Amino acid sequence: MRAFPFHRRLTRFSLLWVITVPFLIQTILTIAFIGYYSLRTSQKAIDDLAQRLMEDMGDHAQQEIERRLMLPNRINESNRVAILSQELDWTDPDQMARHFLSQSYGFQELDFIYFANATGGTVLAGQQMPGQWIVRQNQPFEAGPYYTYRADAHGVQLPAINTQNYDARTRPWYQAARRERQAVWSPIYLFNSRQTLGISASLPVLTTEGQLLGILSSDLSLENLNQFLQTLTSVDYETATTVYLMERSGDLIASSTDAPTFSISETSEVKRIPAVESQDELIRNSSQQLQALNPETILLGHHRLRLNQTAHYFQVNRLQDAQGLDWVMVLVVPEAEFTQQVKESFKITIILFSFAGVASIGFGWLLYRGLLSPITRLCHEAHALTQGNWDFPITSEGSREFEQLSQAFQIMRQQAKDLNEANQELAQATRLKDEFLANMSHELRTPLNAILGMTEGLQEKIFGDVNEQQLKALGTVEKSADHLLALINDILDVAKIESGNITLEYSGVSVQQLCRSSLTFVKQQALKKSIQLQTHIPPHLPDVCVDEIRIRQALLNLLTNAVKFTPEGGTVTISAAMIALTEADAARPPHLRIAIADTGIGIAPENISKLFQPFVQVDSALNRKYEGTGLGLALVQKIVELHGGQIGLTSELGKGSCFTIDLPYQPDVAIALPAAQSSGAHDSELTHSPAIAPPSSPSILVLLAEDNSANVATISSYLTAKGYCLLCTDNGQEALDLALFHHPDVLVLDIQMPVMDGLAAIEKIRQQPSLREVPIIALTALALAGDQERCLVVGADEYLSKPVQLKQLERVIRKLLADRRAP
Questions:
Q1: pLDDT digit string (tens) for 374-389?
Q2: C-alpha angle with apex 763: 759 to 769, nearest 5 degrees?
Q3: More confident residue, 497 or 612
Q4: Which of 23, 69, 587, 647 is 20 to 30 A from 384 via CA?
């Protein structure tokens, strides 16, 4: 068996390692990936579960707190209705005391329920201590002496136990309600009787005329909220949940912990404790984290934050009501409360995966001997095929499955061999066709360059004076050369379209301008034959998105044919219109139809099928009347089909023909204008650029590298007559040597030259520091796709396709020199 390089490298290692190590790595990576994915999935499930649980906990706590906060306002509203309906006599403090006392028995969450009239007289009833009920009232019922009585379980007042002066009009709860004239919450303040913080819900009692009768109020001790939150976390939830309430300012209101929410100084001044300064570490750290998320406002909703390197879940709810209450409730639960069981399950999963990995490795080691040899042999044979060794023997030893695989592999080898031979033949044919087109273009354009150059030089009297008869003959030569050049261009265009090497440059084009500009090119021919040119184009046709140059080329071919085959005195008409869609064509996009009709000789029905075949003419006899190659209509058809359109023809022998071009019209298609202009557009810019003065003295040195002596004579004679100095050579290497020695002002290099071609010469010239800024003009007769890009990439400044117009060449030289001298 033949030893391949890769096989020699494999023999450095044990076959056991070759199989076991990759398998082990795969197993470990699989376990790691599955473990990681399981952990991520578990974490997401935990996050979702924690969020739902936290939301449920928050909703439950919020509902209970809101119920407790709604109770004082409901009691006040009930008492206000009783007073205004005269069920309760607000002028009788004894009656009101008994009424408030009965309400306090029923709603023990409240501390005190009381009423103060407009003169400051107050009556109060409630629970001072658990199981200890008192009544307080001013006697008389105005600001002044304030008596405190104990009450028994039946509401009977016992003798007074305390007397003090009291004016309710100075208290915060009274002032807030009187000022707002609606139900309000007082600020949180100290309940002197119990040395605890509380809040009062106050409601003014107003007559229909707006007269203030008094203020109803109910006290809610914050100590009750503390007890509720502690009961909530210890009984309702099994998790280690911490709940606390704070105002939007950050001051604590109540919490489920034993941490104080306020302090009293020696001067009896009450100081509220902010949450960020709480003695409870969890409350302090969590409030700091929430404040860090947004210093301006506390973010509501669900959060996952780290406190002391430990993840915690947060649920932040807002407590608001119409009476001005605006508190924040925060629930904090350690993530470990949810993840402990999941982590234990994850550890067990890792252990099971590890056992499975070890078992898989052992099983693979037992199987590798029986599987490795046939697989390795098959790899050798496959490698031989990739190296083109189609006759390498394929063995079929091994199990039944490997025998079937070997047989299938033999069939695939034969099919691949046949396909490879077909691909090579196709690639060879394509390469030969491209080489033929390139060589044909070069061989035809090179003499054309000399013919047109000499003709242009003679017409400009570069080689001496010529008479009128000679000028007429030169015009005929130039016209014939131009006709031959157009033929070459048509052949190359058809070849490029068939090979898929043509790219359309779409842009928005005015239909009217497109048709009229195309007519301009045939006006002179029509005038010679007295042919009338007509247009029927609606003024408001929408622009069409096409390659303007290619569509104009197609229209020009059709118009030229129409003028050529129309006798003297005839008519050629170009029209455009949108095609009306029928119900059967509803799925098609709208189309624009451009029609070119003539009154020419017409076409017989049996000859219409020949029209669009390349190099085929209807009249191909040696004595035919009309010239042409048969490429024009074939090129028109291919251009239209590239645009997604179609070409049509109706004709009657002896009466004329009508060619139609249907182009898809899509008004919503965005037109992507090309970033760079094509070579034709570039030449147009040069043609219309401002005039640049020719050289005033023979100080400009031009180095011309061209292997065709006729072209050298033509270009050198013309440029010498224009005042330039010329250095000439016929290969790229000599051009490089002359450029290094003489340092010319401009280099004009042909691309196809012996010894060193133009592209290599340009690249080497640009590598010389002294020649990096010298303008270089590249000349080529290939005129194929990519020629211009290749020339510009290696360092050329301009690119001209043969045959070169001498005026254009001289204009490009002057432009490059002017650009070089510009600051």
A1: 666 666 667 676 766 6
A2: 150
A3: 612
A4: 23
User: How far apart (Å, rounded) are the C-alpha atoms in residues 213 and 206?
Assistant: 6
Which residues face 728 on adjacent strands? 704
Residue 616: CB atoms within 10 Å: 16
792 Cα distance to chain centroid: 32
**Exposed/middle/buried for residue 597 (C-beta within 10 Å: 0-12, 13-18, 19+):** buried
pLDDT computed for residue 774 by the predictor: 92
Strand 112-117 relative to strand 212-221, pairing? antiparallel
Residues 193-213 have a mean pLDDT of 87
799 touches 678 (CB < 8 A) = no
- The dihedral formed by the CA atoms of 568, 569, 575 and 581, expressed in degrees to the nearest 10: -90
225 with 248: CB under 8 angstroms?
Answer: no
145 pLDDT higher than 80: yes
Top mean-pLDDT range of 51-55, 169-173, 199-203: 199-203
Q: Which two tokens stand for residue 22?
A: 């990759």
∠ CA 588-591-593, rounded to 5°: 145
Count the residues in the chain. Answer: 823
Distance between CA atoms of residues 370 and 435, nearest Å: 54
Task: Return the CA Rg of the chain.
Answer: 51
CA–CA–CA angle 797, 801, 803 (5° rounding): 135
Closest CA to 792 of 677, 711, 690: 677
Q: Whole-number mean pLDDT of the chain?
A: 77
| Residue spans of beta strands (DSSP E) within 322-361 | 326-334
The pLDDT tens digits of the residues spanning 545-574 come to: 888 888 888 888 899 889 988 999 899 999
Angle between helix 709-721 and helix 806-821 axes, rounded to 10 deg: 60
- Alpha carbon distance 2, 379 (integer Å): 12
The CB density around residue 719, as the number of other CB atoms within 10 Å, is: 23
3-state class (DSSP) for residue 189 = strand
Query: Angle at which helices 15-84 and 93-106 pack, to 10 degrees?
Result: 160
- pLDDT of 116 > 90? The answer is yes
Q: Are 329 and 64 in contact (CB under 8 A)?
A: no
Token pair for 64: 């209970």
Helix axes 732-742, 758-766, angle to 10 degrees: 30
Residue with tokens 């639960």: 333
DSSP string, 671-740: P---SS--HHHHHHHHHTSPP-PPPSSTT-EEEEE-S-HHHHHHHHHHHHHTT-EEEEESSHHHHHHHHH
Render pLDDT for 435-486 as a digit per residue (tens, 0 to 9). 666 566 656 666 766 676 677 777 776 767 777 777 777 777 776 666 666 6
615 Rama class: left (phi>0) / alpha (psi -120 to 50) / beta:
left
Residue type, 290: L
Diameter over CA atoms, the chain: 149
DSSP assigned state of 122: E
Confidence at residue 75, expressed as pLDDT on a 0 to 100 scale: 92
Bridge partners of 508, per DSSP, are: 545
> For residues 469 and 467, what is the distance between their CA atoms, to the nearest angstrom?
6
| Cα gap 771→740, rounded to integer Å | 8
